[in-house]
Amino acid sequence: MRRSPVILILLAVILPACIQEGEVQVVKLPPRDMVEQLKLGEIDAFVAWEPFVSEAVVNGYGKIMATSHDIWPNHPCCVVAAQKNVDKDILTAIVWAHVKATRFINDERNKDKVIEYATEFTGKDRSVVEEALKRIKFVEYPDKDMFKKYYEKLKENKYLTKSPQDLGYENEDEFFKDFLDDSVYREVIENLSKNESWIPKKVNATVRMGYLTADLHQLAFYVALKESYYEDVGLNIVKKEYVNGVFEMEGFKQNEIDVGYLGGSPATLKRVNDDVKIKIIAGANNEGSAIVVRSDISNPNDLAGKKIAIPGYGTVQDFLLRLFVEKNGLKLR
Amino acid sequence: MRILSLLISLALWYFISFFTEIPPPHEVFYKFLFLIIYEEPILGKTLIQHAEASLFRVLIASTVAFALAIPLGIFAGWSRNIREIIIPIVEVLRPIPPLAWIPLAYIIFAKLPNTVQVSQLYIVFVGAFFPCVVTVFDSARNVPEELIEMAKVYRANDWMVLRHIVLPHSLQGILTGIRVGLGVGWMSIIAAEMIASSVEGLGYFILTMYEVGGRSAEIVSGIAMIGLIGYIMNYIFIRLERVLIPWR
User: Which ranges form a coiled coil (chain A) (predicted)?
Assistant: First the structure.
């Protein structure tokens, strides 16, 4: 049998180049696979949304190295985004249902029901969702200044290939005024503050709604469905599930969905890079993610040379990992 | 004529880029050079490093594929009994596209560490193995009968026939088999990297650039690198054929 010397020479050149020490290796995985792969030892750590963090911890597959609260306190996370051409009455109906659902979740009196819904929505055990809910702050609209940090950091890390000017805005302020559009939200809360049982007019419309796989941050969406808030305003919801926010933005781009729950980072990233014409009409949650590591890893420096999974590049979790790595003087590969 | 062909291609490219979001040639050329020298900020690697990762996978898996395919092809071509066992199996498995094996590969290798990587290597193995075994088999089977009969008249044993007649006669088939196998293996790894999470590699690079968005020049640069490496591999083997079997 003939072995080409060329192949051997190429191997000799290539082999050393493939061995890299001292850097954190990043892999992309759907969060539902992360827990399993951590258990099997295929990965050493992961960054995910709840309830996957709590699932790994409660089952003893790993421990939390840093919560997203530790990395960036009170950071905005998931939001509700809508295509820019969606009718205002429909947006009002959606935001109303979302606000009602968020207030339902935050009302202590509904604790048991919320846990029940969370268990159904994520398919995880009660013990897991109870633990997970402790780390999520359900909100109605993100803090705009904090949200802008996504943009600043994405720009700094060279994720963004375009500027607001390329998208036809005069400057960043004008871009954010259009992108973080809280006008409908303000109207809804104003009406609700006057009359708690106010219901906007029925729209009798079908809305295609995107959301992420078993993402507890987006519980308000499930609560709105179960508590019939969408029905109350005449909305027929067609659900579409995505594995991460970047893919959901692809869904917006390909016009598969009208409205969607997704992370603030992918929403900003693809709004700018691909000029996907969406706006943020409401917030869903702050915090609620964490870096989970194998039990034998005890400090950030131990992550050097280890394999860590994220749901995708440009996701909130990728963003948090980059902040964490930067803070601890590590490098990503 | 070659210059004319190049000019026509470039003109066509400019024309298409004028109407679509595909970046024009000069922009891609600049980005290609940039990515060869500097690390792309998201994945933190140069285009060369991604190409090395893909090439490394292809060479490992193809070497294993050829180490099995070449002897198997020769024995099948040389012995009727072996042929009747092996060739029906090869003919049934050969039309299955390498990528169709991906889900099954995950199941087969689930117990091994690095299932994803092993599965990718397996997909390249499948891609490289079948074209090689078929080409080698064809050339080994077409050894002129009279040559073998003449050798037997001179009391040559089976080993001598294999060593001095069948093998040299199959050399062309072996080299062509390796060349074609590498080509198919190269196509398979790019697709396998796009499907699974690979950390690095040209397929992974292209898909990640698409996901993050706004990076058409990077995507086209990655595609150009795939084409360039495929071309170089093919070129090396054609030259090698000329050196090793000059009588052809």
Answer: none
